[in-house]
Design goal:
Blueprint (H helix, E strand, L loop, with lengths): L4 E6 L6 E11 L3 E9 L5 E7 L6 E7 L7 E4 L4 E4 L4 E3 L8 E4 H18 L4 H18 L5 E7 L5 E3 L4 E4 L2 H5 L17
Helix pairs in contact: 1-2
């Protein structure tokens, strides 16, 4: 892809010339994206993807079981994921990245974190027991013996669960304002004149 713009800066590692390349691309479900990459002759590299489009704030929700594991999940870098039955909330941070996965992939990510936290809690019987209970809940869903709920809230409307069974609703402005966005945002709307 040919860069649409290039700027030079100083490399944070060696102080040499760091060349930033910017280009845009239209991606389904994400809209227009700005692709940023930088490289220096010392080997330092940087890459980022910035969403340039914004839709109305949305919530997608699906109650799932093992039959829904292949349901496509697209989470933008501003999307907040929740699995209420597990008490799990994954909020975007400063280094949050968008991803395309499926319900099983999201559940596997959550399971890995719970397994690691459970292992670290071996000396705290209450936390260790709670972690093992959560892992058993995930295992039951995997065996087809239970259901859970996957929720994605996105203040910019760029996340989606692609399924006829997924429920979509527009978030009220007070709900959207409470969500973390992960990235630095600027409100460029004109202020009201009174």
């Amino acid at each position: 892809m040919t860069p649409e713009a290039t700027i030079e800066s100083s490399c944070p590692l060696c102080g040499g010339v760091l060349e930033f390349n910017f280009s845009t691309n239209e991606i389904p479900f994400f809209g227009e994206l700005m692709l940023v990459n930088a490289s220096c002759s010392c080997g330092f590299r940087y890459a980022d993807t910035i969403t340039l489009t914004e839709s109305e704030p949305t919530r997608y929700e699906i109650e799932f079981d093992s039959d829904d594991f292949s349901t496509r999940v697209i989470r933008s870098s501003a999307g907040t994921i929740r699995i209420p039955e597990l008490g799990v909330t994954i909020e975007p941070g400063a280094a949050s990245e968008a991803f395309i996965s499926n319900v099983e992939g999201v559940l596997c990510r959550v399971e890995e974190v719970i397994a690691m936290a459970t292992k670290w809690s071996m000396h705290n019987s209450r936390k260790f027991e709670r972690g093992n209970k959560l892992l058993e809940m995930i295992d039951k869903v995997r065996r087809g013996e239970g259901r859970m709920t996957l929720v994605i809230d996105d203040p910019f409307g760029n996340s989606v669960i692609i399924s006829r069974r997924a429920q979509r609703r527009v978030l009220a402005s007070d709900e959207a304002c409470k969500l973390k966005t992960g990235a630095l945002t600027a409100d460029v709307s004109e202020p009201e004149v009174t």
